[in-house]
Specification:
It is found in: Mitochondrion inner membrane. This protein has 276 residues and is an alpha+beta fold. Helix content is 53%, strand content 25%. The strands form four sheets. It has a three-stranded antiparallel sheet with strand order 3-2-5, covered by helices on one side. It has a three-stranded antiparallel sheet with strand order 6-7-8. Strands 1-4 form a two-stranded antiparallel sheet.
Length: 276
C-alpha cells in the first residue's frame, strides 16, 4: 500500500511538473514602457497590441514581438548647402518613440529596427530642404526659426511612418573653412574700422580743445590790452614789482646766496631771517 501511494504521488508530481512546464512555455511578460504584437504562423501579424503584464500565447504557433515605446535619443549628422552655396555641417538630435497602435503596421513594413531604416532617411531630406532656404548668416542669426521649421516638417514626415517626435534640436552647426575665414576677416575689418573711427573722434576732440584754448588766449589778450589801455604803464610796473618780491623771497630761503647792492663791489651775506 505504501509503495502504491508513493508511486501515485510520483506520477502526480511528474504530471504537475509537465503541466507547469507547458504553462510556463505559454507565458510571456511585457515590461513597463513596452508593448507586444503577436505573430501567428497561420494568420500573420495580429492587429491587437498587447499591453503591459503577463500574457498567454500558443507555443510554436504564436510568437510575441516586444517593442520599446519610451522616448529614445538619436543624433543624425548632415552635410548640406545653404542658400548662398556655403557648406554647412549640422547635427540633429531627435527624441522619438513609436505610436503604440501603429506597431503592427510598423513591424509589417519596417521591422523591429524601424528607427535605423526611417530616421537616417527622412531627417537629412527635411534638413537639406529647410537649410537651402536660408543664407549662412541667417542660419546663425535665425537659428531658432530654422529649428522650428525643421521640427514642423520632420514631425509631419515621421507621423507617416508611425513615429512621434518629442523633441528636435540643432546641437551642432559649423561652416566650411572658406566661410569661417571670411567671417574672421570681416570681424578684423570691423575692429579696424572702429579703431579708425576712435582715432578720428579723438583728433576732432583735440582740435576742438585747441580752438577753445585759442579763443581763451585771445580773450585774455583782449582783456590785458583793455587793462593796459585803462591803467597805462602802472599795471606793468605793478606786475614787475610783484615778480621781484617773489624772486627775492625765494632767494632768501636758499643757502649760500649773496646779495650785491647796486653801486657796490663788495658781496654781502644775505641774512638768514630776511623776508621773515
Amino acid at each position: 500500500m505504501a509503495a502504491q501511494f508513493f508511486n501515485r504521488i510520483g506520477q502526480m508530481g511528474l504530471g504537475v511538473a509537465l503541466l507547469g512546464g507547458v504553462v510556463n512555455s505559454a507565458l510571456y511578460n511585457v515590461e513597463g514602457g513596452h508593448r507586444a504584437v503577436i505573430f501567428d504562423r497561420f494568420t500573420g501579424i495580429k492587429e491587437h497590441v498587447v499591453g503591459e503584464g503577463t500574457h498567454f500565447f500558443i507555443p510554436w504557433v504564436q510568437r510575441p514581438i516586444i517593442f520599446d515605446i519610451r522616448s529614445q535619443p538619436r543624433n543624425v549628422p548632415v552635410i548640406t548647402g545653404s542658400k548662398d552655396l556655403q557648406n554647412v555641417n549640422i547635427t540633429l538630435r531627435i527624441l522619438y518613440r513609436p505610436i503604440p497602435d501603429e506597431l503592427p503596421k510598423i513591424y509589417t513594413i519596417l521591422g523591429q529596427d524601424y528607427d535605423e531604416r526611417v530616421l537616417p532617411s527622412i531627417a537629412p531630406e527635411v534638413l537639406k530642404a529647410v537649410v537651402a532656404q536660408f543664407d549662412a548668416g541667417e542660419l546663425i542669426t535665425q537659428r531658432e526659426m530654422v529649428s522650428q521649421r525643421v521640427s514642423q516638417e520632420l514631425t509631419v514626415r515621421a507621423k507617416q511612418f508611425g513615429f512621434i517626435l518629442d523633441d528636435i534640436s540643432l546641437t551642432h552647426l559649423t561652416f566650411g573653412r572658406e566661410f569661417t575665414l571670411a567671417v574672421e576677416m570681416k570681424q578684423v575689418a570691423q575692429q579696424e574700422a572702429e579703431k579708425a573711427r576712435f582715432v578720428v573722434e579723438k583728433a576732432e576732440q583735440q582740435k576742438l580743445a585747441s580752438i577753445i584754448s585759442a579763443e581763451g588766449d585771445a580773450e585774455a589778450a583782449g582783456l590785458l590790452a583793455k587793462s593796459f589801455g585803462e591803467a597805462g604803464d602802472g599795471l606793468v610796473e605793478l606786475r614787475r614789482i610783484e615778480a621781484a618780491e617773489d624772486i627775492a623771497y625765494q632767494l632768501s630761503r636758499s643757502r649760500g646766496v649773496a646779495y650785491l647792492p647796486s653801486g657796490q663791489s663788495t658781496l654781502l651775506s644775505l641774512p638768514s631771517n630776511m623776508g621773515q
